[in-house]
Amino acid sequence: xxxxxxxxxxxxxFLKNVPKDLSTEExxxxxxxxxxxxxxxxxxxxxxxxxxxxxxxxxxxQQAGTVDIKPGVCLVRIPSATVAVKKNFNMSKxxxxxxxxxxxxxxxxxxxxxxxxxxxxxxxxTAEQKAxxxxxxxxxxxxxxxxxxxxxx
Length: 153
Description:
Elements: H1 2-16, H2 24-59, E1 65-70, E2 74-78, H3 91-98, H4 102-105, H5 118-123, H6 127-136
Antiparallel strand pairs: 1-2
């Protein structure tokens, strides 16, 4: 564990002193290194989290709440169970059977998204339809994603 403490401390010192005016090549090198560290740590971290969740559930008798595994350092929050509609459950029959009671028990949420062949489909519409469609949509800028290929160890 002392070795881990030393590695974390060294990494902290390194990151604290990374110059802000790195060249693109240096930014890529630091990015690849940090991405490698994150990917290596994430795999082991997940198995540690699984074990800590199990420990917290055991300590809290499988009940919702908060368990301080190590006060000030490691906290596990156990949420209460939530009620949800089963995936792929056909609600139409239930809606018909419940009638007026349905909206008091369930909220109906309907969402829409453009088809994958949206532009081709719109090109087949009339000018009037196209105008209505254009009033219903907007372009959303997507944030560019950065990927690194980690070094092999």
